[in-house]
Amino acid sequence: MRTTVVALWAAALVAIGCGPKSQLDAHSSVIVNGTIQTEGGSASAGTTVKLIRHPDALQAIGEVFVAVGSVGLACIAGRLDICSSFEESVAGGDGGYTFAMRGADTQGSVGQALTFTTFAGCPGGNCAVASDFVIQKTALTIPPLRFWTEVGALTSHVNGAAMLSWPAVEAAVGGGAADDYRVNFVGAADGAVWLSADAQKSTSTTIDDRVTQDRDTRWHVVAQRKQTASGTDFTVDWYSTQQDYPNTSKTPISRASDCYTQGADGMPSLLARPCPLTDGNMTTRFVPVTQQCQSGQSCPPINNWIVIDIGISHPIGFLVLYDVSTSNGAANVIVETGDDLMTWTTQATLPAKPYQTTTLTGTARFVRLRLSDPMAQWSASGNGEIGVFTPF
What we know:
CATH class of the largest domain: Mainly Beta
Number of strands: 25
Shape: globular
Strand content: 35-45%
Number of helices: 3
């Protein structure tokens, strides 16, 4: 039987359990309940609340790994592969909802407690709230969830950047201050476009015009707060009301460029045309190829690097990664540029985060993204878009 990086990764996940050990009897009856409320605290009767079970680490091999706090974004973006209900409940007149299941439903393949998310969209659409948690008791009450319907503001737009601001979430829904805020941009045609990479406590941020390219988008703020109730840890995410964002008409020079990735022989191998990483469509994704090994062998992966071919040597100034991630979160992304596929200049070393930017300098025809760990490869769940831009 061939040994692949995914298989080795699966074995490691089994060894560590990938989550706390479940404290429930598999045959027990489990009840999870809570209330959904308007921003002012009144009952949001008739609202549909989803209970989403995160995939078991073993079930997710070759599919989608779901990070805490990301399910709500997937639901807003229409990613039904992630935002798939395990159960649904319609809130009653008092805003209450209830889910019933067995203990086994809360457990993974090696007896670990799985993560769950409750998600509800505002009755009028355009905003949402979600909470992540594990179920370690047969009767669990989720703290009341309130919608955050506030609208942010584009306070200035100068020198190729927009200044965005918004009111603090606790001022509207109560409780303690948010642990962090992020700004999310959603495309009118193809869902999620950009999520600000670095969480912040500030209620304002600056966005480079090139990030949203030449797209019609809407933006909103994601506020997150961790809290503990009845001995259970909850991560709550509020998604503020979406609003239109101006099309900045910044087309990357890499649009429709050819792409190459590391082939089985270590040489550049042309990806499909048009390349899913430069076609301007966030729904087309690059999925790496798994190395085929003979029985008993452990082979290094292919697709350890990606090259974007701009076509001619051109002044470069900015790189944007849109939902591009790795199979190994410890691997860095080394950004290199060159003109001949032989000699490379290192421009930056980035952490393995799906949404991020970096400055480029000089001129180049090729931009290469290489993983620092030769045993790592790009995410098996697919990678979105890479944008190379000129300087301002």
